[in-house]
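Narrative summary of target 7.
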Amino acid sequence: MRKIFLSFSGMLTDLSLAVIRLEDLEGSLFYFGCARELVMNFQNHLRNSSIEPGTIILGFSLSFPEARKGEFIGILEKIVAVLLQAEKEDRVEWRPHPGRTSFKQLNYLLERNGLEPIDLSQVPRAWKQCTAKRAAIMIKKSGIPLDAMEV
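Modeled conformation, tokenized:
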């Protein structure tokens, strides 16, 4: 089943635990809670900083020594390449910066990719923001044929 990634840090964690592979990102949809600038510049930040083993960055535990930082940066560069391709193919929707995620934005992504939108009248009124968990719940509840990767 096609995947939708709803959390950048969750995606990094799943990659680190081998729950998913880089190949699983190809053809997937992406709607992260963080802004494009953070994701696209993440490897530059790492390249210019000292990282201690075991440091948590966006939920991703860097369990490798400083000498392997280049390997992690290489993985991030591959992720950026996948996301740039996803942008060209209209498979990514970025949170506005500054701003919050919304079910309306998520629906734009779903509709652009030939999927039924979430019925906004079914979203609980208390949910003012579209978090990864809430998006996954509504995707499943709506019967949208996507494997929602949230954490």
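The longest helix spans residues 69-88.
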